[in-house]
Amino acid sequence: MKSNRTNPAAAARTALSAAATVTRGLEQALLRSPSEPEAKPDGRRQRWEKHKQARRTELTDGVIEAIRALGADVGMDEIAAHIGVSKTVLYRYFVDKNDLGIATTVRFFDTTLLPRLVEAISDDVDEYTLTRTVIGVYVHAVADEPNLYKFALASSPTSSPAPADSQKLVATLLTSVIVLRLTDRDAETAGAEVWSNVLVGGIQRVVDWWMAERTISAEELIDYLTMMAWSSIVGIAAVGGSRAKFMADPPPLPNPHASEESR
User: Fold this and answer.
1) Is 90 contained in some domain?
2) Strand ranges (DSSP E) for the chain?
3) Cβ contacts of residue 131 below 8 Å, gap of 6+?
4) pLDDT of residue 9
5) Fewer CB in a 10 Å sphere around the end CB: N or C, the chain?
């Protein structure tokens, strides 16, 4: 293994920089109507868009506080009253409740989830601890904000780009971490993007199920997710990240009766 191990803080900065490229222009795209063509650069238009973006962000923060206080089933009238603006003002910056759901999802990832993830990968810890910590960050971030989660899920249409882009951002962040850690082990990194997307998509789907069912505790959920993710990581590390080595000699399942047969 290489002796000059990557500094975790530097790794976090590198990963965050990579993830930032994913969201560049996302909010601007959401502000435009799907049928609205992209206009040529114009000073007055750019100033208006900048103002609209700032005001939209300010109102989104107010919406988030309203949801936290009033619950996931809050309506536009209640949101407007809680923020202290008219519903007309809300509709000036948000098309409808779906648009509010998109905005809250993007803002939640930007202000809550990503900072926690970056803090987690900045710690100089072993790979197992990092794996469980990152999973725990996501589970607790969602579990701590059930009203926001339910509002965003119920309000955002399945065709919305926000959830997909948020997943892509986290996957990009995780890909950078995987590449850095595998490089430290002189392992192949060609599969890093596949593995990160499997982890992000799988964990999100499980958390969606768990938020609706709550049949086990948050810590049990984190343990089971860690159990599966870490087992995969160990298998990948065992073959140095090589697809060829794995396919040539896939590891067998342990024989539960092996110890008894050897007696």
Assistant:
1) no
2) none
3) 226, 229, 230, 233
4) 54
5) C
Question: Count of domains in the chain?
Answer: 1
Residue of 94, 98, 92, 68 lying closest to 82 (CA atoms): 68
Segment (H or E) for 145: none
Range of the domain at 195: 8-24+97-242
**Cα separation of 30 and 98, whole Å?**
11
- Taking the C-alpha atoms of residue 185 and residue 202, their distance in angstroms, rounded to an integer, is 26
The number of angstroms, rounded, from the C-alpha of 11 to the middle of its chain's C-alpha atoms is 18
Q: Please write the tens of the pLDDT for every residue from 41-71.
A: 567 778 877 888 889 999 999 999 999 999 9
Give the chain's end-to-end CA distance (angstroms, integer). 38
Per the structure block, which two tokens stand in for 118?
A: 């970056």
Q: What pLDDT, on the 0 to 100 scale, is given for residue 1?
A: 41
3-class DSSP state of 253: coil
pLDDT of residue 31: 44
Q: Quick one: which of 104, 96, 60, 93 has its CA closest to 76?
A: 96
In angstroms, rounded to a whole number, what is the distance separating the alpha carbons of residues 217 and 262?
39
Locate tokens 């976090």: which residue?
Answer: 12
CATH number at residue 221: 1.10.357
Q: Which residues in the chain show pLDDT less than 50?
A: 1-4, 22-37, 159-161
Over the Cα atoms of the chain, what is R_g? Answer: 22
HSE (side-chain half, CA atoms, 13 Å) at 185: 19
Chain segment 124-145, per-residue pLDDT in tens: 789 999 999 999 999 999 899 9
Note whether residue 147 is domain-resident: yes
Closest alpha carbon to 122 in 35, 8, 41: 8
